[in-house]
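Students often ask what a 'structure token' actually looks like in practice. Rather than answer in the abstract, let us consider Tripartite ATP-independent transporter solute receptor, DctP family, a protein of 352 residues. Its sequence is given first.
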Amino acid sequence: MTRTPTHLQPRAAATAISRRTGLLLGAAALATLAATAVGGRPARASDLVLRYGHMNSPTSIHGLQAQWLAEAIAKKTGGAIEVEVYPSSQLGKLQELAEAVSTGTIALSHNTAGGIGALYEPFAALDTPYLYRDVDHLMKVMDIDSPVMKKLNEGLIAKAGVRVLYAYYFGTRNLTANAAYLKPADLAGVKIRAIPFPIYTTAVEGLGAVPVPVDWSEVPTALATGVVSGQENPVNVVLDNKLYDVQSHMMLTGHISSGEVVVMNEEVWESLTDAQRQALAEAAAEVRKRATETVLAKEADDLEQLRRHGMTIVGPEQGLDKAAFKASVKALVARNFGEKYGALYKEIEAIR
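Now compare that with the structural description of the same chain:
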């Protein structure tokens, strides 16, 4: 269920298990929970309540997929595990949410690969600009069982106590602003909002602009007040957040194709029975597929809706020099991350 609390504290009846556990107990004791088979008892209050915090609106695809996960987990565990979803940055900003899963303040969240990179740096490489051949390549790399993701997941667990449950297709990032910018030189001196992590500030700088780190919760205000002149996001995010009200142009730079990463506190995972882990894994696989297919199916229509809302879409037909943007960004990525992530980039390239 989606929660809209008046405060950010756990409900009064809930109790934290340890520093790293984002799980909250209801009436049943942990020993009873551990001994309970998934779906093995008649309907009753949930044995385990997990808090899921994220930054997106509840009606966005990214908010909906969190709700889908909550529903799938409840169904597959016979109600033994309940997931409470707190959208719209109620439980923290982007980096705070990543850290909250690590410390156990919350059990679940979704974040960008760069945001997860704040916990385990190599993870940020997954959101490198112009890295993937296409969406199919991206999703093969981001599959929980791919050799790249397995290695990164092991490192994330060891370093931060955080486990990847799944990653779904978030979309492909494009630049928005209040004028048409056709090549990197056009963006000289223009302030563009960047996700406040190095891989994204590099992307914006590579496009030719001045990157200004701004948390997502503050972006609409930053655009409306002129703190920044533009931002970059997939079409679904621009549409859902009505950024067409404060941005007149979208440049189809397509500079980052990315997966959104759903993560869980490792001690919570370890506290579950084998049957409960299997139930969560099955729920994760179903939601990953559903969310990815939904984003892909809506991309073309979302772009048309932006046009209907008055946004000017600027692509190659309108003079956009995507090759120049790509060359500029890739050159800066090579300087900033080539040595650090070069071996990982080769492993990603090898996935077919």
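One point worth highlighting: Residues 274-308 form the longest helix (35 residues). Ask yourself how you might have guessed this from the sequence alone, and why that guess would often be unreliable.
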